[in-house]
Design goal:
14 strands; Metallo-beta-lactamase, Chain A; alpha/beta
């Protein structure tokens, strides 16, 4: 599996590219901004983007969706509970950031347990609501891409519409911390971590907050 990340946009969003070494097919996760840079990275890696997977529907994770989708013809995948955020500037929060982003509907609405095939790479979808109703984590060959659910030393905000802090903590504890301690965690912002590090030191999860 090919796996690389880019920090894009003014909010330093982590955009991830996952590729199959054999077929050269790829998925782009959370193209938050700088579509040209994301497309150049795909070219550099000699990958063909077949799908764009959104961990949730907020503007900082989909700002370059249109550019990447148009250039590659890739299908757009988002959890069913966040699907209407693509077509609503209010729900995707772009209306409150000086813009009004509205996209075509998703090509596929994801559910918990779905598997997305990228060439011979299988990506498992884990529904982890709390930051948004349709927030997901992507399990990519032993790596957890957690979007804005779990960060290194922190957790996602829950004060946006559809957010629920208690639900988010349950999502993390019941669906993510069950993985082996050495499992890498790749969040939507900031540095990578591991399940073990977060279980031990994250103040929102170990009762020290």
């Amino acid at each position: 599996m090919i796996f690389t990340g880019l920090s894009v946009g003014p909010m330093d969003n982590n955009c991830y590219i996952i590729g199959c070494e054999e077929t050269r097919e790829a998925a782009v996760v959370d193209p938050g901004a700088e579509g040209g840079r994301i497309l150049r990275k795909l070219q550099e890696l000699k990958l063909n983007c077949r799908c764009i997977i959104l961990t949730h529907g907020h503007v900082d994770h989909l700002g370059a969706l249109g550019a990447v989708r148009e250039a590659t013809g890739a299908q757009v995948l988002i959890h069913a509970e966040d699907a209407d955020m693509l077509t609503s500037p209010g729900r995707n929060l772009s209306l409150f950031h000086g813009g009004s982003l509205k996209f075509a509907p998703a090509d596929r609405k994801l559910q918990d347990g779905d598997v997305v095939e990228v060439g011979k790479v299988k990506l498992k979808i884990i529904h982890t609501p709390g930051h948004t109703r349709g927030g997901i984590t992507i399990l990519a060959e032993g790596r957890l891409i957690t979007g804005d659910t779990l960060f290194a030393g922190s957790v996602g905000r829950s004060d946006f519409p559809g957010g629920d802090h208690d639900q988010m903590i349950r999502s993390i504890k019941e669906k993510l911390l069950v993985f082996p301690p050495e499992t890498p965690v790749y969040p939507g912002h900031g540095p990578a971590s591991t399940v073990g590090e977060e279980a031990r030191f994250n103040p929102f999860l170990n009762g020290t907050w």
